[in-house]
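User: ok so my PI wants both of these folded by tonight, can you help

Assistant: No problem, let's get them done. Here's the first:
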Amino acid sequence: MKNSMTDLVKAEAEARNRRRWLIGTVATMATLGGFGLAWHTFQSTDGVDGTGSGFWRLEFVTPEGQMLRTYSLRNRNLLLNFWASWCPPCVDELPLLSRFYSENLANGWQVLGLAIDEPDPVRRFLAHAPVSFPVAMGGTSGIKLSRALGNQIGGLPFTVVLNSEGLVVHRKMGPVSADDLRAWTAAKPP
């Protein structure tokens, strides 16, 4: 009886060890899978690499719930500004960008503000401080686009200027100044 009891204890210990090993292996695989998914999510550019290859296929929802297609902005210089209503430097530069848009629309310039924010705060913000240029909700796609266009740290505000062919010609991390805007409009497109 003592021998069979010892065998039973050994068998139970081996079964526990196998379960631990199996659980450890599954946990390790899940962790690696999670890291892989996170890497893909934050590194994937979905065909947008700053060379115009995928940018014109993108679509975003406006704060009012309508669809904004980047295709409608083609063949113009585009100042693309990533911002959020909770970001003080972002909010501070919006009046300057609004004036720039109003003054340069006839000169072949477009401005698009991509809010990395929730629709309700953006609607409330724009109700109190409207802008003259189109605004769309960036969400996760906006974050990925920002990274694909060179914002590797994910900071805000982040501004990119694309020429009429969709090529990135300028990038700026942090608030845009009037001097930046003058220099960008004076520069000859590549």
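One down. Here's the second:
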Amino acid sequence: MAWNYRQGLSIAIITIAAVACAASTARQTQQSGAASQGIIGTWTGQSICVGNHPACKNEEVVYRFVAVPGKVDTFILYADKILNGERVPMGKLDFNYDATKGTLTGEFTKRQTHGIWRFQISGDALEGDLMLLPNKDIGRTVKAHRVDESKVPKAPPLVDYDD
């Protein structure tokens, strides 16, 4: 089979496109990896009630974010409140990271409450809120900071978070 200029040019264009696509994927993976390192870990701070929700109580919280194996930009949050110097599990929730917005979001329904937790991480600071649906009222605000696990009460076993 004779080689011609058009075939060579087509192969070159395809090769360049493949290399560019691979480089873009590698950059996205590196960015996701960097984001993961900024999210994964232990955070502690205050979760404060907002609005008229009589059952709501302000809480000192400890959040642990862990990566979900095999899923990019998906994390599990293990949430605790501190009562009498001990961590008490409040639950776990899947969160998605949006690299373009730099936000973590996790939607849930528990009993009669449907809401979305939204967090923004900047360095070692985490801020966010709980938006209650369907009205989009803010039910809580959270301000926390990254902390070494040894600086907070001992974590409960992960099985304690199962519903």
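Residues 5-39 form the longest helix (35 residues). The helical segments are 5-39. Good luck tonight!
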